[in-house]
Input
Amino acid sequence: MSAVLIAALAAVTQPAAPAAAAPEAPAAWIQPDPSTLRRVFGVRYTRSYADFELLKTNEEEWTVPLISPDGVRLYVGTRTGILEALDLATGESLWKRTDMGTLGYGMAEFRGRVLVGSDAALVGLDPQIGKEHWRVEIEGKLAAEMTVTGTVALLPVRPNTLVAVDLVEHKVLWRVKRPTPDSITVRGQCPAVIDAARGRVYVGFSDGTLVALDKDTGSTVWVAPLGTRKDFFADVDVAPILVDDGKALLTASYNGGLFKLDAETGDRIWHQPLGRITGLVRIDRGLLVASLGSGQVAALYEANGKVRWRYKVKKGYPSPPIALEHGLVAFAVSKGPITILDAARGRPVQLITPGSGMVVPPARSGDDMVALTNEGLLLVMRRGEGGGAAAR
Output
């Protein structure tokens, strides 16, 4: 079992006045004060999925673990095609498969089935024994979290495609594909976001567009160009956030910056040229927190997109952030710790160092949080419980 250490690694916080955007230049890393760190999540147990015979440098785990909606089971998938179900409370193995091929980015549960991307298919498995019950060919790898609405799963599929699958009839309902850029694109894709009031789906693509689609037919309602296609990385991989009682949405292009759009028409309301945004989450007190490919995390004012503070990781880049209660935000780092910040000030609260970094965010449900490192170490954590998590 790998030792789990909580270390005072890394960060910088740069307060910025609300009236002006912070400069793009990254700040230097500084050592946080260990006396200000505290335990938020404790590590209850760990489990190793490392394959030492196939161990290579710079390998990464790209499948986010799934905690079942009832909080009983934990599903863990690896880059070597292993999928295992564990008892979340005890870590006992319930079943294990080693034949899943290339697993997709995210998993879900629906009406007594575990939904998993396996190679170029969506597969429905029995959550109790892991038996395959059905399979739908989706013609590509699941590249982001799937969105389940009613009896339909919306699947971001590489390359540059959104597929709607009927989970009752087990068939593809519709498919939307955008032109794939000739240049290099950012790995991953944008999860689909549902606008139930309008019967729409919003989703971004690597050609730098955010598209509004009819939820039932997949027909295009509007297209908003956000990225600069003449440059690398126009990708819109950030899940849009509906704001202003559904009248507007916030999203970002990697090379285009942060945008607020009219949800009805797709027209631009404002734009902030904050580049390299890879993830965005809404926090209390009118704040957004964004992860940046430049190795930073930034808090942004929801009203105008201007920067409140920046936090610089020591090495690597942050995963998309996830919101926690009590004004906290968490993210993983590709070559650093799981980091929990005070979202109002950008100050580190807890740093959990498992020995290697992560490229996907932790999975969270209630008081439970789970992470799988690039070296295959599974950390099962719980708020206020467990050991190995003293932040000193």
Summary: Residues 1-26 have pLDDT under 50 and may be disordered. The chain is about 0% helix and 45% strand. The CA atoms of residues 225 and 298 lie 24 Å apart.
